[in-house]
Here is the input.
Amino acid sequence: MSDIYNFCAGPAMLPAEVMQQAQAEFINWQGLGCSVMEISHRSKEFIAVAEQAEQDLRDLLSVPDHYSVLFAHGGGRGQFSAVPQNLAHAQQSAAYLVNGSWSEGAHKEGGKYLNAQVVGRSVVEQGLAYVPKIQAADVDQDFAFYHYCPNETVEGMEINWLPETGKVPLVADMSSCILSKQIDVSKFGLIYAGAQKNIGPSGLSVVIVRNDLLDQARDTTPSFMHYQTMAKFQSMYNTPPTYAWYLAGLVFKWLKAKGGVAAMEKINAQKAAHLYKCIDNSDFYLNHIHPDYRSRMNVVFHLANPELDALFISESEKAGLRALKGHRIVGGMRASIYNAMPFEGLVALTEFMNEFVRRHG
Ligand SMILES: *Cc1c(COP(=O)(O)O)cnc(C)c1O
Here is the structure.
C-alpha cells in the first residue's frame, strides 16, 4: 500500500497520518465504546469536536472575527445554488468570471436564481490560456456579488491575483485550492469549498462569510442552506455531516502540526515546480496554460502523441501511480497534488515520466 501514490482529483487522498488516526479510533472513540459517527451532534463530545474544528480552521486562515464559518451539506455545487439565493434577490444581477468548467457551472446555476452575467473570461494566445485582469471599472457597482474560481480543477488553471471589484462582494469557489496557500480572507465577501480535495470527505462544504452578508436571502431560500439560519444554529439546523466534520478537524490539526498554511504553500510550490520542470524538459509532454496561470494543485499535461495515452495510463497504474487520466472534457493527463500528496509522490511520478520517454520517445 505504502508505495501507491493517488493523484485523484477528488475525492482525493487524505494524509496517511489522519487516516491512521481515524482507523485507530473508528470503533471506540475517546473511550465512549462507539464511533464518533454514532453519537448525537448535540452531545457535548461532538460539540467539542465541531468547535475545535472551526477554531483550527479560523487559526489556519486567520479568519477575522466579523466572518462566520459554516459547515454545510451539499459539496461545492450546493454553494452554486446557495450563493445566489443568499446574496441576491431574483431581480438583481451578479457577475461571474468564466475560465473553466467549474466557474461555468456556477454561472449556469446562478442563472436560475438571478440575472447572471459573464464579466471576464479566459483567453488563449499563442496556444497558452490565461485570464485578463479584472479592474473595478469592469464591474458594475450594482452587482450583488462577483463570483470566480481561483483554481479551475479540470483545466489546471490558477489565478494568482484578486479581481478588483470595488464595493461588490467578491465570492470565491476555493474547492480545490483552500488551505494550499495563504490568503487574506478580509478581501472576500464569501469563500466556499467542497471538502473532498483539500479538507476531508465529500458531501461537506465549508463556507466563510462576512457577517453583513449573512442575512440578505430571499424568502424562498431553503432553510438548510440559509446562511443566517445556519449561523444561528452553529451549522446544526439540520443534522450536519458529523463524520466528515470530525475528519476535517483531524486534517486541520494535521495541517497545524505541519506548520500551517505558510508551510504548505512552500511545499506545494516545490511540488508543482518539480512536475512542471519535468514537463517542460521534454517535447514529449505538453502543457497549454500560461506559466503565470499554471495550477499548483492540478497539473494537466498532454502527451505530444495521444496514441500513447492508454499505454501511459496502464503503465503508470502498474507503477503504483493512481488516477492520472485527465478529465474527459480536457483529455490527456492530470496529476492532482493537494496538500496531502508528499513530495516523494512527485519524485515517483517524474521518474516514471522520464523513464516512459526513454522507452517510447
Ligand atoms: C470539485 C469541485 C466542485 C464540485 O464539488 P461537488 O462537491 O462535487 O459539488 C466545485 N468547484 C470546484 C472548483 C471543484 O474543484
In short: Residues 10, 75-77, 102, 149, 153, 173, 175-176, 194, 197, 202 surround pyridoxal-5'-phosphate (CB under 6 Å).
